[in-house]
Write a structure and sequence with these properties.
Distance between the termini: 28 Å
Mean pLDDT: 80
Number of domains: 2
Number of strands: 7
Helix content: 40-55%
CATH superfamily of the largest domain: OmpA-like domain
Low-confidence stretches: 1-28, 31-48
CATH topology of the largest domain: 60s Ribosomal Protein L30, Chain: A
Oligomer: single chain
CATH class of the largest domain: Alpha Beta
């Protein structure tokens, strides 16, 4: 499927989402129904928003986790497990500037660069340590997920520089999570440079939105 058709399908599904929200019983925030999520997945022909590394990389991590003694999820337990993890993440991250997005059984945390890193730096802002510590706490409680950490930049600077910066930022976040006890076997780090903007790089606000790290949580299945 080409990118134009995918975007059209995602837009159609987004309209469907708008009319299918319910109140989350855990957080009292609007939440899209499971039926609408299923429509979104179907419309996108299997595309998973946020997940970058691909099925092969995730599968390798799943094998490593099972080898390390982490049990896999199956059947209806997967959705229930992710429902509970999503609710705890929303509660922990409320008011931090980090958004929580659920597509199917995957959960993505979007961490904007303005609260995570200084400009042109891969050093974590000390003020963000508490937020990542909260994320780590939930990840350790819900250990049956693969954790993909993806770095992104705006289009300021060269492609090579932005690629390197995105990789370093992803590594910084992953390393912090590891220091908090999130096991290495769960982690995938990837840098995308400026290749996946979520906003217009022609504006200050757009560039700020594009400078981000996304953490995507994929359930461990056998």
């Amino acid at each position: 499927m080409n990118s134009k058709n995918l975007m059209v399908l995602m837009l159609v599904a987004a309209v469907t989402f708008a009319g299918c929200e319910t109140l989350d019983p855990y957080t009292q925030e609007p939440k899209t129904s499971n039926a609408a999520k299923g429509a979104m997945i179907g419309a996108a022909a299997g595309a998973v928003v946020g997940l970058i590394s691909g099925d092969d990389a995730v599968e390798r991590r799943q094998h490593a986790m099972i080898g390390a003694g982490v049990g896999a999820l199956a059947g209806g337990a997967i959705g229930h497990y992710q429902d509970k993890q999503e609710a705890e993440l929303r509660a922990e991250l409320q008011g931090t500037g980090v958004s929580v997005t659920r597509i199917g059984d995957n959960i993505t945390l979007n961490m904007p660069g303005n609260v995570t890193f200084a400009t042109n730096s891969s050093d974590l802002n000390p003020a963000f340590f508490d937020v990542l510590t909260s994320v780590s706490k939930v990840l350790k409680e819900y250990e049956q997920t693969v954790v993909e950490v993806a770095g992104h930049t705006d289009n300021t600077g060269t492609d090579a520089y932005n690629q390197s910066l995105s990789e370093r930022r992803a590594s910084s976040v992953a390393q912090f999570l590891q220091t908090q006890g999130v096991i290495t076997q769960r982690m995938i780090t990837v840098g995308m440079g400026e290749a996946r903007p979520v906003a217009d790089n022609g504006t200050t606000d757009g560039r700020q939105a594009n400078r981000r790290v996304e953490i995507t949580l994929v359930p461990l299945t056998s």
